[in-house]
């Protein structure tokens, strides 16, 4: 049964229920729970960031799944919340800066989390919601899921979503999404590189759980090393990337889990991971 992840905003009481948390073995499922739009308001981003931080510190968590309730995965930032702050003395600048910084910190938290993160998408993922999908390590969606970066339609280019989308999708396809603001279907999203798999709605959670369980069965140390190295080498020139990953491989080979894994393979037995 899911338990509620709560948090407190400065000077305010608890805001319960924005993110639901449930566990199955080493797999932690975090569910955005503010339908119908699951907007990434300040409160929602703080709740999700807190839940991810807790997951990162919990050695029993091997894989994190980010899902959502309702018919939309996430409609992105809360435009009503943003518009309300235009009445501030600074026309909303301080609040806008807080929103963008918090969003960037959330996406970086996913990238830097020492555990794989899988997005489970059923419905529309738009703007910062699409950014959230693109920031996850893997993404699996239903055949009716849709995606877009529509900021250009309202005079607000999706510049921060662009960072994640342009690193997940092919360059020209990312520009197509950003310049047109048009919604793409699941098949197109897979062609663009935004998602890994498309499955019928009734099998979505089952397929995601299967992927998560397979990944969770691996050495947690190896997953941590590999995820960090993957994102770091992407930003390097080719020769530097090889120099860096060669050293990563050496350090990985010296780990107890690598010795155990190789020994188990040679002995034709299942490895027993210690995370060391």
TrEMBL record:
Q: Which family does it belong to?
A: Belongs to the enoyl-CoA hydratase/isomerase family.
**GO biological process assignments:** fatty acid metabolic process
Provide any one GO MF term from the record.
hydro-lyase activity
Give a single Pfam family match. ECH_1
Which keywords describe this protein according to UniProt? Fatty acid metabolism, Lipid metabolism, Lyase, Transit peptide
The role this protein plays is: May play a role in fatty acid biosynthesis and insulin sensitivity.
Q: What is this protein called?
A: Enoyl-CoA hydratase domain-containing protein 3, mitochondrial
What InterPro entries does UniProt report for this protein, alphabetically? ClpP/crotonase-like_dom_sf (IPR029045), Enoyl-CoA_hydra/iso (IPR001753), Enoyl-CoA_hydra_C (IPR014748), Mitochondrial_ECH-domain (IPR052377)
Domain of life the protein comes from: Bacteria
């Amino acid at each position: 049964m899911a338990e509620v992840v709560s948090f407190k905003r400065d000077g305010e009481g608890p805001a319960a229920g924005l993110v639901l948390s449930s566990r199955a073995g080493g797999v932690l499922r975090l569910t955005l729970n503010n339908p119908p739009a699951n907007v990434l308001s300040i409160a929602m981003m703080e709740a999700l960031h807190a839940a991810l931080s807790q997951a990162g510190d919990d050695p029993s968590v091997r894989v994190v799944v980010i899902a959502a309730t309702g018919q939309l995965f996430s409609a992105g930032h809360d435009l009503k919340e943003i518009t309300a702050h235009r009445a501030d003395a600074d026309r909303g600048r301080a609040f806008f800066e807080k929103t963008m910084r918090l969003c960037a910190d959330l996406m970086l938290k996913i990238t830097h989390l020492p555990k794989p993160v899988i997005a489970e998408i059923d419905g529309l993922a738009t703007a910062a919601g699409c950014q959230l999908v693109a920031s996850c390590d893997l993404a699996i969606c239903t055949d009716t899921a849709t995606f877009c970066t529509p900021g250009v339609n309202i005079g607000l280019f999706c510049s921060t979503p662009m960072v994640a989308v342009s690193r997940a999708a092919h360059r020209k396809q990312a520009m197509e999404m950003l310049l047109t603001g048009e919604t793409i279907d699941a098949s197109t999203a897979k062609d663009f590189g935004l998602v890994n798999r498309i499955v019928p709605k009734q099998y979505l959670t089952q397929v995601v759980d299967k992927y998560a369980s397979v990944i969770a069965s691996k050495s947690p140390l190896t997953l941590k090393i590999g995820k960090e190295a993957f994102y770091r080498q992407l930003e390097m020139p080719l020769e530097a990337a090889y120099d860096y990953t060669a050293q990563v491989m050496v350090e990985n080979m010296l780990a107890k889990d690598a010795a155990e894994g190789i020994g188990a393979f040679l002995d034709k037995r299942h490895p027993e991971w210690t995370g060391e």
